[in-house]
Design goal:
Elements (H helix, E strand, L loop, with lengths): L6 H6 L3 H4 L22 H21 L3 H5 L2 H15 L14 H20 L30
């Protein structure tokens, strides 16, 4: 694959897999070879540190390594929780308990799946096995014409 970056710029960038910690959500901008990305901001570094702190705390509670924890739904919840704490927004609707209680993640996933299934059944061509759209109305056996000449 080609790159728009010069050789000097290529030496300045690292691959996405080595650019930052192995977190469920990227914590810095990486290049696809078209531009030189900015350095990781202080806020992004704080988010990354907080994700790692939460991972260490909660992985121990679950008897997992940090790497194993990051691959779970609880790891994703920890990443959302870190962003919620650092950015101070309620965009990420996650509770601290979700970072160490897999049952809560499963319950939330099931409720989201139900919602998505309902949404999918309303999209033309969408299919949902648990929530089928209403069947089309049956047409009468005989065609009724209001025009006497057409009979």
């Amino acid at each position: 694959m080609g790159s728009w970056l010069s050789e000097r710029e290529m030496r300045l960038v690292a691959g996405a897999e080595t650019a930052s910690a192995a977190t469920p959500i990227p914590t810095q901008i990486v290049s696809n070879g078209e531009y030189l990305p900015p350095k990781q901001s202080e806020t992004q570094k704080r988010v990354e540190r907080r994700i790692l702190e939460l991972a260490d705390e909660n992985a121990k509670k679950l008897g997992l390594s940090r790497r194993q924890f990051m691959a779970t739904g609880c790891g994703m919840a920890a990443a959302f929780l870190a962003m919620k704490e650092i950015y101070g927004t309620n965009v990420f609707q996650v509770d601290a308990a979700e970072a160490h209680e897999p049952e809560l993640i499963l319950a939330k996933a099931q409720s989201v799946a139900k919602w998505l299934c309902c949404l999918e059944s309303r999209i033309p061509g969408g299919v949902c096995k648990t929530h089928q759209p209403p069947a089309p109305r049956r047409q009468p056996k005989e065609s009724i014409s209001l025009n006497p000449v057409a009979r």
